[in-house]
Amino acid sequence: MLSHTIAFTKFFTLKRFKMVGVSRDAPLGVQCIQKLYIKLCPRLQINRLRWYQVSVLILTYFTYMTYHLTRKPISVVKSVLHQNCSSLTPPPDVDPTDDQWCNWAPFNTTDANTLLGTLDSAFLFSYAGAMFVSGMIAERVDLRYFLSLGMLTSAIFCYLFGIGRTYNIHNIYYYLIVQAGAGIAQTTGWPGTVATVGKWFGNTKKGLIFGVWNSHTSLGNILGTLMAAEYVDKDWSLSFIYPGLMMGAVGFVIWLFLVPEPKYVGLVPGERNTPIRQCTKSDEEDEAEIVSHDAEPTQVLVGDQGASLRSNRYSANTQHEEPTEHTSLLRRPSLSGSSAVSLSRALSIPGVVEFSLSLFFAKLVSYTFLYWLPLYIKTSTNLTAKQSGKLSIVFDVGGAVGAILAGLVSDCTGCPGIVCVVFYMLCAPSLLVYQTWGASSYTLNVWLLILSGVLVNGPYALITTAVSAELGTHSSLAGNSQALATVTAIIDGTGSVGAAIGPMLAGIVSSSGSWSYVFYMLIACNYMALFLLLRIAKSEIAKLKQERRIASPPRVRIE
Q1: Of all helices (H) and strands (E), which one includes residue 307?
Q2: Considering only CA atoms, which of 14, 8, 23 is closest in space to residue 295?
Q3: Euclidean distance between CA atoms 303 and 198, whole angstroms
Q4: Are 175 and 373 in contact (CB under 8 A)?
Q5: Which residues contact 144 (CB under 8 A, 6 or more apart)?
Q6: Which end of the chain is less congested by CB atoms within 10 angstroms, N or C?
């Protein structure tokens, strides 16, 4: 009698999960959509794997877009925190001899650029330091909770910076603490999104996919600039508050719908190229299968990749411990052999050190533009703060084009090192040309900014996305997929140290009154990034020559 009761319970439990098709630990929104789909369209056949892959790309795209959306306002607001008061008409109650009357304390000093650079450094150094830890945490937790919690925290810090004006806060330490906290919270974005996308797309060619996907960085910068520029002259607190609210809303959507791994919906991406096939069973067959305790998975071939639709609770002979809502946030390592890797092992992967150091200098250049370009345009031209912010958008437009172009060329050649070297070689002259003639006309400024954006962000985007994902699944890891977040964090964390140093140095150097030395610094860093990839580029050239010799028909010598 007891055995029949157990079989009866298992039968109805299995039937419920087969109807839903997802794990109980899948996002609540996905469970609701799946139930509605089965109820309204029970006979409709769809490529489930492709649907989930597209949804993951879209959700992670908007996730990281909002991360950059909340980073951008500070670069626009700098132009009103400290500006040239002599060109403005002071109110009647202001001392005419006070040349700092229009500036926001504590930035109403002659070394304001240094203080503003310190704000950038507080964000970026905390970001760089926390990134290494964040990557290792991301390997051990549910990425959906990791991202949504990180987005909520980041949105709160963005909001706190904005209310500094609302409540007339003039203490520099308040803004430094808020920036440092925002930097730590922002480290959840990159390892979380890249690891999620990497787990859904396996070892397929990622250059073009990540190139298009990485345009979220440029779109976030563009939207952040537009939102900040709209309120910068009226009430700059709103330049921070509205992006923060938008990020919090997107974070809630991520908590509802993001599926961090295929196993949560019963899918395991494979490599076979097969058409769609739907497997169905009668109730009698299901009952017979349960009573006989058959734990074999039902094979469902989805699209052009194979997938296994497994029961949502692993059989007794497997060693997986699937996380639930009640398990601790930091899970114990899995016994299946796919445990998280150490930092030293991740550093030993061929290419990780070279690409990390190259990204150090590439990100230094990119983030100097990110944080100082609107102020440089306002200083070198006659444009207002709002007009300067909107003009700086075209640099991000070029960055999106550069990310797609670099990813496409990398996919076609299979040589990301060579692609980065070529971009670096062309980037240095373009920066010199922009510094020399960019301010001569508005039209020329636009086109040179687009060109600079393409060449600056192309290799930066390629290294942080496709290269990181490729190295995170390197053959030396013996199939361990848990290294992806750590490798991504190492590469992006090293680059973030450069990103922290660049804006700080730009603030110090520009305080002397000349921006020419800032551009010379950026050009020198660009050449350093190129130099660090020469060995990898050389090995890729040798590989291309070897493949060409193998592909060419053997020559037969007739005497």
Answers
A1: strand 305-309
A2: 14
A3: 19
A4: no
A5: 27, 254, 255, 258, 259, 260
A6: C
- Of 471, 459, 474, 469, nearest to 418 (Cα)? 459
Count of beta carbons in the 10 Å neighbourhood of residue 5:
9
Residue 239 has pLDDT above 60, yes or no: yes
CA 143 – CA 440 distance, rounded (Å): 48
State the average pLDDT over residues 441-455.
94
pLDDT of residue 421: 95
| Buried-exposed string 309-343: b where 16+ CB fall within 10 A, e elsewhere | bbbbbbeeeeeeebbeeeeeeeeeeeeeebebbee
Residue pLDDT, tens place only, 427-438? 999 999 999 998
Nearest to 175, CA basis, from 234, 123, 216: 123
- Name the CA radius of gyration of the chain, rounded: 27
DSSP reduced 3-state for 375? helix
Chain length of the chain: 559
pLDDT at 59: 95
b/e for 478-517, b at 16 or more Cβ within 10 A? Answer: eebbbbbbbbbbbbbbbbbbbbbbbbbbbbebbbeeebee
Nearest-angstrom CA–CA distance, 138 and 485: 6
The tokens 């991360």 sit on which residue? 67
Beta bridge partners, 309, equal 298
**Could you tell me which of 232, 160, 247, 161 has the C-alpha nearest to residue 392?**
232
Q: What is the largest CA-CA distance in the chain?
A: 103
- What's the pTM value of the predicted model, to 2 decimals? 0.69
Tokens of 479: 């199939």
What pLDDT, on a 0 to 100 scale, did the predictor assign at position 65? 94
Cβ density class 11-49: b for 16+ within 10 Å, e for less = beebeebbebbbbebbbeebbeebeeeeeeeeeeeebbb
- Judge whether 180 and 194 are in contact, CB under 8 Å: no
**Strand ranges for 398-453 from DSSP E:** none
Max mean pLDDT among 107-121, 171-185, 317-331 falls in: 171-185
On whether the CB atoms of residues 117 and 508 are closer than 8 A, the answer is yes
Token digits of residue 404: 């797609």
Q: Cα separation of 456 and 446, whole Å?
A: 15
Q: What angle do CA 335, 340, 346 make, to 5 degrees?
A: 145
- Cα 552 from chain centroid (whole Å): 41
Summarize pLDDT for 175-229 with one digit per residue, the tens: 999 999 999 999 999 889 988 887 887 655 566 677 788 788 889 989 999 999 8
Using CA atoms, how far apart are residues 485 and 331, in angstroms rounded to an integer? Answer: 16
What is the rounded CA–CA span in Å between residue 453 and residue 221? 12
- CA–CA separation, 112 vs 118, rounded Å? 10
Residues 55-86: pLDDT tens digits?
999 999 999 999 999 998 998 898 888 887 77
For residue 56, the one-letter residue type is V
Residue 440 to residue 458: CA distance in whole angstroms: 26
Residue type present at position 467: V
- Residues 184, 137: Cα–Cα separation, whole Å: 13
pLDDT value at residue 309:
34
Q: Distance between CA atoms of 491 and 484, rounded to whole angstroms?
A: 11
